[in-house]
Predict the structure.
Amino acid sequence: MNRRIGLFGGTFDPPHLGHTRIARAFADQLALDTVIFLPAGDPYHKTAPRAPAADRLAMTRAAAAADPRFAVSDLDIVRSGATYTADTVRIFRQHYPAAALWWLVGADSLAALHTWKDWQTLVRQTGIAAAPRNGFTPTALPQPLHHWAAQALADGSLHLLSAPPDNISSTDIRGRLKTGKSTAGLLDPAVAAYIRRHGLYTDDTDTP
Ligand code: ATP
């Protein structure tokens, strides 16, 4: 049987329980054999990550230990320069020509899909699955995505995750770590231990 693979790109700065919760829900609802987390090396459409790629990779591996369907790839870290989702998916498509591929996102990322390099090629290479997120619903998309979204919903290549949204975000967690607030219920204990051990996010410069 053809493998069903979810590709979950993110900064994972740090990975949190919102990530693993939606990854699990995607795996359940799309009957995925595996969800591959892909920490970004050099995100071109976001401010620079606060933690080094090696730490974000190690934390993502710790978070991914929570479910046997989860795996982690360093593909986007070891490639030099800016990495684009369309290229990442093309590489996976070459490795798994017969697999059903799903690119997994939160609704905030989906709403910016039309700004991604070669996005129209991307959506021909992979299904897109989107989780609801605070302030963003996958159905309220910007105008440039309307035509594609209507078609993709009709032909099944866009899946909207059925799950309640939560408020967990890496930015909020970094703010809490900087100010010594609790991160209980937000981080996997193994990730929280890694952050403590390596003294990460203590001098974070995010503005709330
Ligand atoms: P930040 O808060 O700093 O923007 P983040 O929490 O969104 O970071 P990322 O690593 O950038 O973390 O997220 C990777 C992917 O996971 C993105 O597609 C994002 O939309 C999605 N995502 C992250 N947290 C949630 C959440 N709580 N609910 C739904 N999707 C989420």
User: Anything to note?
Assistant: The chain has one domain: 4-167. The domain at 4-167 is CATH 3.40.50.620 (Rossmann fold). Residues 17-29 form the longest helix (13 residues). The first strand starts at residue 4 and ends at 10.
